[in-house]
Structures are given as C-alpha cells and as structure tokens.
Design brief:
By secondary structure, this protein is of the alpha/beta class. The protein has helices spanning 14-25, 57-66, 81-86, 88-108, 142-160, 192-200, 228-243, 261-272, 296-302, 311-326, and strands at residues 5-9, 30-34, 48-51, 69-74, 113-119, 130-131, 164-170, 172-174, 207-210, 222-223, 225-227, 249-253, 259-260, 278-281, 290-293. Helix 6 (192-200) runs parallel beside helix 8 and helix 8 crosses helix 10.
Length: 332
C-alpha cells in the first residue's frame, strides 16, 4: 500500500489534467484513471496514469486494492451537448452508470471525500438568465440530466454513509496553463473560445455565431467564462474544505459576469492582433440567451479567490496554447 492517495478520474483530459498538475505541485499523492478516449497521456504531469474505464468494475477493484485512496475527484464524462441529444444512452451509460459503479467501489474502499465535476447544464434555461445554487434544476438535454443524476446519487449516499462531497457546477471553462505545459487539446472541440483561437491561428476557416437575435445588448448569447486555472484551484479549495470537516455541498463555479459571443470574439481579435472570419448561423435549439453564475457561495464557503478573472487573460492563454499546438511543440 502507498500513502493516502487522491484518485482523479478523467485526469488526462482538459480540466482534470490542470487539477492533477496543481495537486502534484502541492505535494499530493495522485493516481489518474483515464481511458484516453479524449484525454492525452502527455497531459498527466504528476502521479501515475492507469489506463482504464471508470465504469469497469474489475479495473476499479484492482485500483482500490493497489492504492490507499481516501479522496476521489471525478471528471471522467462525455460533455458534448449535441452528441448527448443524438445518443442519450451513451451519456447515461458513461456519465451516470459509470459514476454509480465508481461510487460503489469508493464506498467499499472507505473513501471519505468526493469532488464531483458537474455542470451549469443542470439549470436548463433560467428565467432571468442567472443561476444560483438554489435555482431549480431543469436540464434540457441528456448531458445535463446525466450529471444531475450523479449529483442525486452523491446526495443520497452521503445521507446514509460517512462520505462527504462537493459538487462543482461549471459554467463556461476556457483558457489554459499560463506556463504553456497543458491546455485544451481535444480535436474538433466545440468550446467557443478554443474554436475562435483555432481560427486565429489558421486551424479553422471561420467561427460560427449561433443566433444574433437574442434579447441581449448585441443580440448574441451571453455566458460566464471561467479560466481553467481558477476552476482547478476551486477543486483544491473544495478538497481542503472537506478535509477541515466541511459538510457536503453544491457550488457554482463562475465569476458572476457575462460576456456576449461578440465580446469574446472581439477580445480574440484584439489579443491576436488581426480580424478573424465569422459566420452568422441560426440559433441552436436549447441555447439560453443568457447564462451567468451567481457565484458568491463558493467564495464564502471555500474562501476561493479567482486570480484570472479577466476575459483578456482567458483568451491570451487560450491563444498561446493554440499557437503552440499549431507549431507542433506539443503532440495532440
């Protein structure tokens, strides 16, 4: 047996790898479980990588037997909303059923803490465009439902066992490691910031603006963008909170400020120093006009203080990473 270890599922992916890096830099013992279907071996900068699936009981049994794990940080999931609509069982299988299997093995091994990667998609389309943790959960796609079902499992398990958890509901994650070691590397990514930066470096011919007639100041959708470095730090703060004896809770991860699609694309152009090609498209079904976090609770509960709360910082690190990929300095 090794000393107490943190299991990070999906730790070779975009967000998980940033958390693994911060955990490693903080001296934590980490093991990463990832099937590398969307993650990258070279993105795991600390700890040991075990290649396997979170829903595989045999893999989990061996993992919990080999390592003395007392904390699970659970990122492994499918995250593309249109894909979830087209193939809902894939999302319920991978996101919900696999989470149930993981929880079963974690409880059997005596895991004390879980930090869960959830999503603002659980809110659906809030009436006023803002969501607090008390906003009714009304997801409008299987992706959001699959994540909410895992939140419910955590809630019910924590009610009858010693396990405690923090579920973090992400808003729009962007940016990359400011030191340029890791970043968002998924091929055919759909995140707007990454797509726009790919256009800026010549990897894509244009970026689509889906909907220009929303009831917003410039007619395009408004979102709350959070830098991946601040999001990763929120996970470490959540772990510290649980180690102090904090009660199970659910928290929004956002800055509480929204930017429109046009504002984001304008920022990409300013940082890149040139115009990028845009194409106006019809609205996509299910896209809310505005979705912004009410995010005071995470600051009060965890003592979280974001350090990258600036759209230009988010775009600058995203663009730097895309340039690095385009130059072939990091194999994707």
């Amino acid at each position: 047996m090794t000393r107490k270890t943190i299991l990070v599922t999906g730790g070779a992916g975009y967000i998980g790898s940033h958390v693994v890096r911060q955990l490693g830099e903080g001296g934590e013992s980490v093991v990463v479980l990832d099937d590398l279907s969307t993650g990258f071996r070279q993105a795991v900068l600390h700890g040991e990588l075990v290649v396997g699936n979170t829903g595989d009981p045999d893999c989990l049994a061996k993992l919990f037997q080999r390592f003395d794990i007392d904390t699970v940080m659970h990122f492994a999931a499918r995250t593309v909303v249109p894909e979830s609509v087209a193939d809902p069982l894939k999302y319920y299988g991978n996101n919900t059923c696999a989470s149930r299997t993981l929880l079963e093995h974690a409880l059997r091994a005596g895991v004390k803490h879980v930090v869960f990667s959830s999503t603002a998609a659980v809110y659906g389309i809030p009436a006023d465009g803002e969501a607090s943790e008390d906003t009714p959960t009304q997801p409008i796609n299987p992706y959001g439902v699959s994540k909410l079902m895992t939140e419910w499992m955590l809630r019910d398990v924590a009610a009858v066992t010693p396990l405690r958890y923090v579920a973090l509901r992400y808003f729009n994650v962007a940016g990359s490691d400011p030191a340029g070691r890791i970043g968002q590397s998924t091929p055919k990514a759909t995140l707007l910031t990454k797509v726009a930066c790919e256009v800026a470096v010549g990897k894509r011919p244009y970026v689509s603006i889906f909907g220009t007639d929303y009831p917003t100041p410039d007619g395009t959708g408004v979102r709350d963008y959070i830098h991946v470095e601040d999001l990763a730090d929120a996970h470490l703060k959540a772990l510290a909170y649980l180690r102090r004896g904090g009660e199970s809770t659910t928290l929004n991860c956002g800055y509480g400020r929204g930017y429109s699609v046009r504002e984001l694309l304008d920022t990409v152009e300013k940082v890149a120093g040139h115009r990028i090609a845009k194409r106006e498209e019809p609205r996509r079904a299910g896209d809310p006009p505005t979705l912004v976090a009410r995010a005071s609770r995470i600051r009060a509960t965890l003592g979280w203080q974001p350090m990258h709360d600036d759209l230009a910082k988010i775009v600058s690190t995203s663009l730097a990473w895309e340039r690095k990929l385009a130059e072939g300095h990091w194999s994707s």
